[in-house]
Amino acid sequence: MEAYTSFAKVYDMFMDNIPYTEWAEYVAGLLKEYGVEEGLVLDLGCGTGSLTQILADKGYDMIGIDNSEDMLGIAMEKREETGQDILYLLQDMREFELYGTVKAVISICDSMNYILESDDLKEVFRLVNNYLDPGGVFIFDLNTVYKYSKILGDSTIAENREESSFIWENYYYEDECINEYNLSLFIREGELYRKYEEMHYQRAYELEEIRRLIEEAGMEFITAYDAFTRNAPRPDSERIYVVAREKGK
Fold first, then answer.
1. Residue 237 in contact with residue 142, Cβ under 8 Å?
2. DSSP 192-234
3. Structural domain spans, the chain
4. Quick one: the chain helix, strand, coil %, rounded to 5?
5. Highest-confidence range of 123-127, 157-161, 165-169, by mean pLDDT?
């Protein structure tokens, strides 16, 4: 089943617990810390554009790429409402193309975990390096092995709301480091609720493998942080941020 089709309709509703403003402050702080205070920034896996919009409000010239037409449709509706000048592109991050280079690339909310093969992830890193200005930075987050194996794995999450409800079943396959999400959605349509089903897969990566893939792709690994701090990742970190830099083509 194709991911982020039916779910796109209610994604923002169920993600209203995500403090996008605080996340954007953290990302903007990292961008400035590593020398990017303005200019073109690419948001890989931008989804419905919530973070993209906030960074545009902060003065960055934003480009958003996502491979879900439904999610991008919502992002473009938001752009229409706000009048922001954001370029959205329907592309797979494993083979994305830009017309020129950008000062920074970001990828937030575990988009990189959706890349299930190491070689594909290395290709993403290679493309990022190719489209970064000299010395440009790449900032992205990842759900950790700890989160999948100890928090999400083999758990069921459910939420019931007036307009829609969901049941989210997780299965973590330790040998493959793959987390399978089975998502059942019940979306209100008039007086009735229609059921939709989606299946998502994410992969857990150890930090050392991420570092190796970054360097094999030609980039410089700078550092990694426990999410929303400037501290090193802990064994029980659930999300980490990685910072890499362009290092020649």
1. no
2. EEEEEEEEEEEE---HHHHHHHHHHTTPEEEEEEETTSSSPPP
3. 7-144+205-245, 147-203
4. 35, 35, 30
5. 123-127
Q: For residues 48 and 26, is the Cβ–Cβ distance under 8 A?
A: no
- Homologous superfamily of 147-203 in CATH? S-adenosyl-L-methionine-dependent methyltransferases (2.20.25.110)
Residue 202's DSSP bridge partners are 179
First to last CA, the chain: 37
Nearest to 13 by CA among 213, 216, 188: 188
Q: Say whether domain 7-144+205-245 belongs to CATH 3.40.50.150.
A: yes
Determine if the pTM surpasses 0.90.
yes
Residue 46 and residue 49: Cα distance in Å, rounded?
A: 5
Q: Are strands 239-245 and 164-173 parallel, antiparallel or unpaired?
A: unpaired
**pLDDT digits over 165-221, tens only?**
888 899 999 999 999 999 888 888 888 888 888 888 999 999 999 999 999 999 999
Helix (H) or strand (E) holding 73: helix 69-82
Residue 127 and residue 96 in contact, taking contact as beta carbons nearer than 8 Å: yes
